[in-house]
Amino acid sequence: MIFVILYFLLAIAGFASVTSIMNGYNRGVGFLIFLLFVIAVFVIAIIIPGIAICVRRVRDTGLTGWTVLVFWLLSLIFTSNDSAVMETISSVIDIIFLVILCLPTGYVNKQGWWSANYDNDVKVLSLRNNN
Predict the structure, then answer these.
(1) Does Transmembrane count among this protein's keywords (predicted)?
(2) What is the CA radius of gyration of the chain?
């Protein structure tokens, strides 16, 4: 909710600054530069932790951290065209990446690659008293 409020405040302030500059007032230029700086800091503050969480999650599954970059580049390459087929391929790549992010910890190391064999799972003793 706080992001929505911040977004609307930044949008209103940006609109006011651009309007004042277009009407010939020079006072809005400094505020517009400050506003762009705040937006840049906000974007960096959101993107860096998001990338760190993705890399950590991918490494927890047993893959290398470079997998995030590979999936991001593939998605970027396929979305750069205006073709519906390319957009579909990009969506499939994003869904595969989401599935990788949702895999349990150590899944790739325990199961091999995409093995659905659950017979080799390690049984963890329960802390409950089964009396």
Answers:
(1) yes
(2) 23
Please answer whether residues 94 and 75 qualify as being in contact, where contact means their C-beta atoms are separated by less than 8 angstroms: yes
Task: Report the C-alpha gap between 48 and 56 in whole angstroms.
Answer: 12
Distance of CA 20 to the CA centre of its chain: 35
Mean pLDDT across 13-42: 75
pTM above 0.70, yes or no: no
- For position 95, what pLDDT does the model report? 92
User: CA nearest 66: which of 56, 77, 55?
Assistant: 55
* Eight-state DSSP code of residue 125: P
CA 72 to chain CA centroid, nearest Å? 10
Contact 59, 65 (CB under 8 A): yes
* Lookup: tokens for 23: 């009407």
Domain map (residue ranges) of the chain: 2-111
- Our measurement of the distance from residue 64's CA atom to the centroid of its chain's CA atoms, rounded to an integer in Å, reads 17
